[in-house]
Design goal:
The protein has 341 residues and is mainly β. It contains two helices and 30 strands. It is globular.
């Protein structure tokens, strides 16, 4: 796993721009980590100034539980329709888990060595976090799943604008069992994955298991396998992703749709080519590979490529699409949208 990208630089001590400078790369449009909200707002419940675990579970719909400069080291259940926001270095350590107990939860702004578990019927968003240093492959950093016996679950998850570094398995979607309802709908977009064993794993099991997935506009750097599909019957979408300095881009026993995916310095972009699309091999696309700056260089072939989409922002909150070459705006391939000087 970890080390393919390190040959080109200093690994993901590269996330220092996110942790230490309190800002993103030079063209970041959103502060990283996220700033704290005003704790005097009646819809903001701040930890640790108020009761700990109870605040997560007892918050009302529409409220935000804000974790300021605190490390979470156990399992925290999140009430439905509640946002949990980390700021000022809030951390979920390797023993910690954020686990919504109902639909509508949003998780944002944390540094996470632990995990996020999403297995209850409902819709969830995980955004603007840094997932780092989770070396166990037993569970992914983000688990979207319907695998519990005698319990139906229809789980919809959006994973967006996160950064993953030195994790064994970053995002996983899975189903199991032969009766009841076991469905997962997963969208993974505008994320940066660096030095991972497996970045995205989608595994559909059980007679009634169903997974719908879209993996779009992500940048994968330094991986054993970037995307893996097991037994997926509903054809997955894999589009406008940038794969770099890895071993295998896509491992699959399933048919998948692919459009405008690009690779550089990848041993094998795919075991099986996508249905109705190709992977294009391009020259080095990044501003500063050795320094861990994975924005697109001005002459990168990944700029102004993809016509369709509804993304709005890239991994650091900059607008997309942006037309740099004139004409109608087109999306760039990967997690970053090149911005005008």
């Amino acid at each position: 796993m970890i080390g393919k990208a390190e040959a080109f630089g200093d690994g993901l001590g590269r996330l220092a721009w996110a942790r230490d400078a309190q800002v993103g790369p030079p063209t970041s449009c959103r502060p990283t980590p996220l700033p704290c909200l005003d704790a005097s707002d009646p819809d903001v419940i701040e930890i640790p100034t108020e009761a700990g675990a109870e605040a997560f579970d007892d918050a009302n719909a529409g409220q935000t539980v804000q974790v300021r400069a605190l490390t979470l080291s156990s399992t925290f259940r999140i009430a439905p329709l509640v946002t949990v926001r980390g700021c000022e270095g809030a951390t979920v350590d390797s023993a910690g888990t954020l686990w919504p107990r109902g639909s509508g939860a949003i998780i944002e702004g944390f540094e996470v060595a632990g995990s996020v578990v999403l297995n209850k019927t409902g819709s969830y968003i995980v955004r603007d976090n840094i997932f780092a240093d989770r070396t166990s492959a037993a569970d992914a950093s983000i688990e979207a799943r319907s695998v519990d016996a005698l319990v139906s679950a229809d789980v919809e998850v959006i994973v967006e604008r996160n950064r993953f570094a030195r994790v064994a398995r970053a995002v996983s979607a899975s189903t199991r069992y032969d009766t009841m309802t076991h469905r997962v709908a997963l969208t993974v977009r505008n994320n940066l994955f660096v030095d991972t064993d497996e970045a995205v794993v989608i595994s559909e099991g059980g007679l009634v298991g169903e997974i719908e997935s879209a993996v779009v506009h992500n940048t994968f750097v330094g991986f054993d396998t970037a995307v893996r599909y097991f037994g997926v019957e509903t054809r997955p979408t894999l589009a406008a992703n940038l794969f770099a300095m890895g071993t295998l881009g896509v491992a699959t026993d399933s048919v998948y749709e692919g459009a405008n995916n690009m690779s550089w310095a990848v041993d094998d972009p795919h075991q099986v080519p996508p249905f109705g699309g190709t992977f294009v091999t391009i020259p080095e696309p990044f501003v500063d590979t050795a320094g861990g700056d994975y924005r697109l260089a001005p002459d990168a072939l990944a700029i102004d490529v993809y016509a369709s989409g509804d993304l709005g922002e890239d991994v650091v909150g900059c607008p997309r699409p942006v037309a740099l070459g004139g004409g109608s705006p087109r999306y760039d391939v990967g997690a970053y949208e090149a911005q005008p000087e």
